[in-house]
UniProtKB/TrEMBL annotation:
This is WGR domain-containing protein.
Length: 84
């Protein structure tokens, strides 16, 4: 089943989802404007829920659309399930 993202912040473009012991976050960043700074696009990150460690960025960033970022997260989740 695909991840179901929900808006995590009303003020910033941040979405989150979790499944199978993993947490995923998608955020939008831009060189100007409010929010995260960097090359314009969507950034996808993941981390295990049971470990207190930083998030790991999914390769291919910045992604051009939310759908691309969502697909990257779902692909990473499928990979993590396959290797564990």
């Amino acid at each position: 089943m695909p991840l179901q993202f929900h808006r995590a912040s009303e003020d910033l473009e941040i979405w989150s989802a979790s499944s199978g012991g993993y947490s995923f976050v998608i955020s939008f960043q831009s060189a100007t404007g409010r929010g995260f700074r960097g090359r314009s696009g969507y950034v996808a990150l993941w981390r295990p829920l049971d470990q207190s460690r930083g998030s790991i960025r999914i390769l291919g960033w910045p992604l051009q659309s939310f759908a691309e970022a969502e697909n990257a997260c779902n692909s990473m989740l499928n990979y993590l399930r396959d290797v564990n």
